Amino acid sequence: MRSLTKKQMKFLDKIQDTNIKAKVDPLISINEITFDEWSTLIDMNDTEILYQEVNRYLQERINK
Fold first, then answer.
1. Distance from C-alpha of 20 to C-alpha of 47, rounded to nearest angstrom
2. Which of 45, 20, 16, 17 is nearest to 30 (CA)?
3. 3-25 pLDDT, tens per residue?
4. CA distance linking residue 51 with residue 37, whole number of Å
5. Phi, psi for residue 58 in degrees, rounded to 5
């Protein structure tokens, strides 16, 4: 499976919601997630395009 799983999307949503509640700027790029968060995403479902898919998902979520 090359696209993000529902579990990965929920994980990213949780990070985003936590940042918003803490009044921290929302994630707009994969470059803003921590190493531990990235490792968790890889453990859930690693693909050769994971970096691009996470980045696309974060940007789409911000632009809603």
1. 28
2. 16
3. 999 999 999 999 999 988 888 88
4. 12
5. -65, -40
Examine the pLDDT at 64 and tell me if it is beyond 70: yes
Q: What CA–CA distance (Å, rounded) separates 64 from 45?
A: 25
Q: Contact at 8 Å (CB) between 27 and 16?
A: yes
Q: What is the DSSP string of 27-40?
A: P-SGGGS-HHHHHH
pTM for this predicted structure: 0.87
Spell out where the chain has E strands: none
* pLDDT, mean over the chain: 91
Residue 4 burial (10 A CB sphere; 0-12, 13-18, 19+): buried
Tokens of 63: 């632009």
